[in-house]
Amino acid sequence: MSSQTPLHRVQGLGAAHSGVGHFWRQRVSAVVLVPLSIWFAVSALGLVGAREPAVLIFLSNPLNAVLMGTFMLVSIYHMALGLQEVITDYIHHEGVKLLLRTLNYAFAFAVALACVFALLRIAIG
Amino acid sequence: MADIPHKVASRPLSPFLTIFHWPITMATSIVHRMTGVALVGGTIVVAWWLIATATGPDAFDFFNRMVATPIGQIILFGFVWSLAYHLVNGIRHLSWDFGYGFEVPTANRTGILVFVLSLILAGGAFALAWLGQGGYYQ
Asked: What is the ipTM of this complex?
């Protein structure tokens, strides 16, 4: 037996007010990150002890630049979703929750922008 | 009135994390969230590495010197192990989402496997790097 109103039920948004959207985005980004993380680990190990020119050559390669950019952007998206879940779980004051969620996304945007800027500067520079 | 605290203390209290025996599945779940939060730091390290590379030789060398310090190596191992754990346990979570491996004995076995495998992956990566087997892209 449900205590939801008929309108609430057809909207399908539930107590989180966002339905399964968050869950679904987190899973899709997780699936994408499985091969990308393996590529990143193999690449990072391949660059251990490398001097700057070698790293510049590696990251100037279009395939590596796109893969690194995708890895960072999807990672940061997955990170923002995960941190939002942590904030929602532990912070119960609505105002503080709103503030932290805003800071979370502002932080994610800043790191994402910094990574894209760095990659473009290396590739086009 | 004075004996109320005594009465409160003698009542059975609601159990909390410190009271429960830790099942493997609970430990893997908590560690998944902990490694996830730790990977925020790892993301900042990779972003710093990219920015330092884009900035120039001085910034790049400073990054390398910081990573080479004992504290830098400990942080780097924490990052590598967190990535390995979150990746391997993430695959375990994805298989649960498809309905596989939810039986308690299976979940316990894969839980131990996740800890062992993540340590082997992180330890293996560090062993390769220290033995000079890394750096094949230069």
From this structure: 0.89
